Amino acid sequence: MTVSVHYFARLREELGRQGEEVALPGEGLTVGELWRHLHQDAPPERLMAAVNQEQASLETPVRDGDEVAYFPPVTGG
Q1: Domain for residue 76, yes or no?
Q2: The whole model's pTM is what?
Q3: Residue 33's domain is classified under what CATH number?
Q4: Neighbouring residues of 37: CB distance < 8 A, sequence distance ≥ 6
Q5: Is 80 exceeded by the pLDDT of residue 75?
Q6: H or E segment at 48?
Q7: Count of domains forming the chain
């Protein structure tokens, strides 16, 4: 399974990269499990995500070919 992962705003700065293409063994990861796989820790508190440009929860399944985006909560003003 291969997915495209993108990071936005503060996450991009903290991780030092815009994103990555990831080849994963098997199927059946969720958005939260993908974060843990990539970063070896729990997702940051209040992490927001999207799968294929649609808002997603940490329990949303990730499938082969998906585009997953992680970003901090949006603030307005």
Answers
A1: no
A2: 0.90
A3: 3.10.20.30
A4: 24, 29
A5: no
A6: strand 48-51
A7: 1
Tell me how far apart the alpha carbons of residues 5 and 58 are, in angstroms, rounded to a whole number.
Answer: 14
Task: List the end-to-end C-alpha distance of the chain, in Å, as a whole number.
Answer: 40
d(CA 13, CA 9): 7
For residue range 18-45, list pLDDT tens digits in order.
999 999 887 789 999 999 999 998 888 8
Domain assignment present for residue 22? The answer is yes
> Position 51: which residue type?
V
Q: How far is CA 77 from CA 31, 46, 48, 74, in A?
A: 29, 19, 19, 10
Fill in the amino acid letter for 28. Answer: G
Residue 52 lies in a domain: yes
Mean pLDDT of the chain: 91
Domain with 60 in it: 2-71
